[in-house]
Amino acid sequence: MLKPRSTPTRELVNLDGLWRFGIAGRVQDEPWTGRLDTTLEAAVPASYNDLFADREIRDHVGWVWYQRTARVPRGWADERVLLRLDSATHQGRVYVDDQLVAEHVGGYTPFEADITDVVRAGEEFRLTVGVNNELTNVTLPPGTLTVEQSGRRKQTYLHDFFNYAGLARSVWLYSRPATHVEDVTVVTGVDGAAGTVDYAVRTSAPADVRVRAVDVDGTEVAAGTGAEGSLRIEDVRLWQPGAAHLYDLVVELVDGGTVVDSWTESFGVRTVEVRGTQFLINGEPFYFTGFGKHEDTPIRGKGHDDAYLVHDFQLMEWIGANSFRTSHYPYAEEVLEFADRHGIVVIDETSAVGLNLAVTGGLAGAVTTPTFSPETFNDQTQAAHAQHLRELIARDKNHPSVVMWCITNEPSSNEEGAREYFEPLVQLTRELDPTRPVTYAVVMFANPSNDRIADLFDVISLNRYYGWYVANGDLVTAEDYLERDLRGWAAKYDKPILMTEYGADTMQGLHSLWDIPWTEEYQRDFLDMHHRVFDRVEAFVGEQIWNFADFQTTRAIHRVDGNKKGVFTRDRRPKAAAHALRQRWLGLNGVKPSGPA
Question: Whole-model pTM above 0.70?
């Protein structure tokens, strides 16, 4: 699905702002049939949970309703008119006046509706959007719904971040011609000093297609015709980590010599490859430094915010980070576009977090309820997972910043049924995009001896917490555990090993002379210990700390106003570890440090 943008043949209207808002039970039973009966207004884009001083709204389980009016521009009389939601967490229903025009399940990918036949150019219409935050065993992420004796509905879930919901990304009204470009796929390669650009254009109806590649100064560097083809860019400037260079692919549909639709897709020429234990970008070994992140800020929750986007990338540049993982869901498209322009490497992840019922057995991973079974995560869950992968890859396939797909975070990969569940999904991912490596983030109690699926993937990505959840406060023991674990994976698999999570909760301003958990000194020493081990393991290709910044979680006795493993606070103030990391990472510059093997 192409992201709406203004072109010579397309126009768009942004519908962000303040919308009327109400939760089910406080507004009329069919809120789309008239003006929403409420005095509340909610910001779009934003999660609704923290906007109001009302606990019932924050903890609401079920449908909420947004409503506003919009007007179709007068000049769109001969165009198709579409409505696009960048996301609705986790299920959306869209009504134009009294008519249902779209439904979608999945909280982090876009969906749209062609509303040409139910609106008129120059006239106003009532737009009502229902959003449901419920999670079950067949949704991603999964969860469990219960009803208490009082009738109160309660949502539980297995992921360790707050279940923010609502319209967290933008809503658009846009036009396109009747005959139009529906999709563009770009795959790049390198041939000596030249870049190769294989393209495929899908159109709504037969039309002549012509394409041209344009450099940043407007110079045409290659051109071709046909819905599929290959372009060659001589003396190409590659997209590289820390040194992004983008071209535009201008696609035009021509009918009788007239351009009936025009679409421009940015792309970068680069290659990605796993060779043995190396991760290569443009044929050169790449060492990941960076973070697992979250879309999480005060008040907005998961609402996209351009100011935080800019500031977060500035902090990553300051600290020397060259990458991040979109833990644990696809981020807003604006984030990936920014990464494209600024040379930040991205591991793109689905919202398949929590496929692990063994966590209820504690860190030992004792299986109390089978994770994969007809009653738990089953064929319906797998089908939903497959759809999430299709939507993720269709949306993000052309971003040069995206170098790897992560299809799940911390699944119960050591349990019976894991291979039957994941093998078809890995195969689907490779069919949808054969150009990028595939990984998954391995939970702590899956090890080289009991993991059932690691051989299916290109990169071993480990989430490990030695010194925190295991051997807490004892970094000597933690160092021994960590090194033995990493060397076990390296001995069994001839694959790159990446640490996708390691971290320690830290309260800003808490200090001690001793190795006391939760202090800033302990976080710094904890990270230093990990880095010593990383430097000794030859197959190691990177380190992504958990987490970039503190973030909100559900209420729990081990969470003091959320997860505090951030190197920055939730409002982006650096902890002591940030300064130590800056010294290490700026010196690495994307190259693996040398250390005794």
Answer: yes
